[in-house]
Amino acid sequence: MPPKKPRKPKTPAEQPKSEPHPDQEPDAPSNTNDRDDQAGTKSSSVPSKRKASTTGAPSKAPRRSVRGAPRMQPTPVKILQYLLSPASVDSCRSRDEIEDLKDRGIDLRTYSSLTFTPFEELICAVILSRPISHALGLRSIRTLLNTPYELTTPKRIRSAGFDAVRKALDIARTQHRQKTAEELVLLADAVVEHLGDGEEDVSLERVRKECGYNWEKEKRMLKKRVKGLGKTGLDIFARRIQAAWPDPYPFADQRSLSGLGKLGLPESAEELKKLLDEHWTELVLKDLAGGEDEKKRRAFVRVLERAVGVDLEGNADAIRADAAPASGSRHSDTGEPAGQPTGGN
Fold first, then answer.
1. Contact present, 307 and 313 (Cβ < 8 Å)
2. Model pLDDT, residue 284
3. Residue (of 283, 211, 297) closest to 251 by Cα position
4. What one-character-per-residue DSSP string does 135-182 give?
5. How far apart are CA 288 and CA 294, in angstroms?
6. Whole-number pLDDT of residue 114
7. For position 126, what pLDDT does the model report?
8. Residue 339 zone, left/alpha/beta (φ > 0; ψ -120 to 50; rest)
């Protein structure tokens, strides 16, 4: 019987392939490195990650991005500085107001601009004391006080009459239009007859003079003469009018105190005033008019109004985050190294 011929070894292409286990993931394709080929080394089965240095040199700590770095808790003064700055304005406005400003331009007069006369503030107090949403109230104010209506004086409201006031409120798509229109016409009449000096007067100085510049007496007079102005409306009026009238200053209603607390600011009008006074030189408020006392009152009102807006829009946490310096930043906005105390702020 002739001897069997030796079998030829199979080439790699002819070797049978082993089937992977159903629960086992297939091997990732090997990634050949040109430099390994040139050095005559074999490709490793370990994934090609950069290996740690085995030399004795100390390894460098990874660089941390300031943008993604954790932030410190902001101090009350930091929050105050940020809240008073232009950077916080949109966080205090309703989306409806922001869109309206985009569509109609920056010259649009808005409640958040704090540029209203005492008579206009009284109009706002009457509107915002109605049982409607804050956004609807602000839209009504923008509609009434801007073109084409511009119902900004007692004379303009009386000349326009009830129908024009009601039409403006219809355009604003608000609620309680009939009653609000009636109250605004009655307000114009009350200013001419009891609270002001003629149809063009918007200062309401007659109220202050007749009440001896006493806020409690002024409040009683306004409540008596202005239909629809109750405690809520008087609180709204006092919160804002103290920028021009020192009589109620410092005053903060419950709505603004709630917003201050959520921001981490003092929940007391006196304590907030004290905080502003103590750190006045650290605040940059070049846009405020008047002498130093009036500027302080206007800053106080701005803080209250923005605290209310932030609270209503649910942006308190965002304001606190934006007011806090990143812990990886070299300096805070007071010029002190980040993480250092700033004098008990």
1. no
2. 81
3. 297
4. HHHHHHHHHHHSTTT---SHHHHHHHHHHHHHHHHHHTT-SSHHHHHH
5. 9
6. 85
7. 97
8. left
